[in-house]
Amino acid sequence: MSDNSNSTLNDTAKADAWIRDHRDCVKPRYRLDYHVMPPVGWMNDPNGLVYFKGQYHAFYQFYPYSSEWGPMHWGHAISDDMVHWKDAPVAMAPGSTADRDGCYSGSAVDDDGKLSLIYTGQIFDDGDIKPFNTEFSETQNLAVSEDGIHFSKYAQNPVIPAAPSDNSRNFRDPKVWKHDGRWYVVIGSSTKDNEARALLYSSADLREWKFESVIAHSEGKIGEMWECPDFFSLDGKDVLLFSPVGMEPEGLKYHNVFQTGYLVGDFDYASGKLQHGEFEEVDRGHDFYASQTFEAADGRRICMAWMNMWQTPMPEQADGWAGAMTVPRELHAVDGQVRMTPIKELESLRGPVIADVAAPLSNDQVLAAPKENRCEVLFSADVPADGNSKIGVSLDIGTDHDVSFTYDAALGRLTLDRGGEDGVRAYDCGKLEKLDLHIYIDRSSMEVFVNDGLATFTSRMYPATAATIKAVAPASGLNGKVRVYALNAMR
Ligand code: FRU
User: Fold this and answer.
1) What is the DSSP letter of 29?
2) pTM above 0.90, yes or no
3) What is the predicted pLDDT for the residue at 131?
4) CATH code, domain with 188
């Protein structure tokens, strides 16, 4: 199932017809239910997340014609509540002069009733459309829609034709917002010396842009290129959230191919600089990348990310699709840290309670066996006073290794272990007296929120059977309680 022919270029109608004809060929084995994912084919980054005229729009990097990355289109899904999503027609296909080889990541804003997409146009020098082909040029472009469904690319694209002269070729993933009546955009880039940085431009009309400043840069420590930067105010602080490429593992940190994290500080529009603290990863699991945030109707700052990682195995590719977004998460800045918790709207998915278990929990005690591996787990326990217990949950998914999420009191360490090669991700959160886990499971994904967002772990997993969820507890038992909800099917 693959069509690379040039006739696909700039043709959203052809992409929609392909999807109609091929969506039933996708195998259900690892399909998710309440997560945004492509109807068929490949997806990576969330793009253009926005609330527009009473609905939520989620666009994404999309190649409908194969379950591998290819010339990037913008897929599109729409929701009234950020939980129930419906596929919309493909919003953009590549092939115009400025985006010949791909419509790369970008963002969306409501420009006085017009849904406006600002995205990167990709052109490879040799026309060879491959991931990690390093000979390319990138510009920023605009597309506009009156109805939020059909988009016209701006005739005078690109709107930002070139990066500053000391820039490398990397110049992509524009994220736009409005401040004091003026548009601002932050763009991911690096210098010719591979110093990663976030560039700031401003505009009165989204069409003519002026370079302002370098908001922040790697200082030789935070990778060699920043993808998908996002910049916003949160609880009185300013946050730069981005995905650095090129960081090496350091202790328990930075074990994914690329990372996603943030700098928290204070931004001064006059100088264009962010005074900030240290870089922190925002999620500690295997599969969280290229996050983007937006403001919900009531002003909450919501984040979604690609729930996969570049250059890692994606078993669903054998089934005609690849990639999903995380559930939407509400962000808060607490003590210099960005915390994520699942949005409250997800509670509307709750079906019957399939486990309601109170103390004492014993090790390996079966808690629930959700049908189709789709459930929400609320686990709460006192960390035993002996100071050396391991507590949490495990999932028997019929593979040769259980998936588990535990807190090791002796080490003060949270660990997600999904088995297999490179199965462990861990974070030293320090001493806890209580462990609260809020876990969303959706067949091939697990999103764990610890103690109200103190830490978050997001990983894909590939079950052979529906999961049996068990307690991990010391021999003396665990003072805790667990409630598991089956979640209603949406698809
Ligand atoms: C991040 C990224 C972006 C780029 C897009 C291409 O995952 O590499 O920098 O715009 O994916 O699909």
Assistant:
1) T
2) yes
3) 84
4) 2.115.10.20
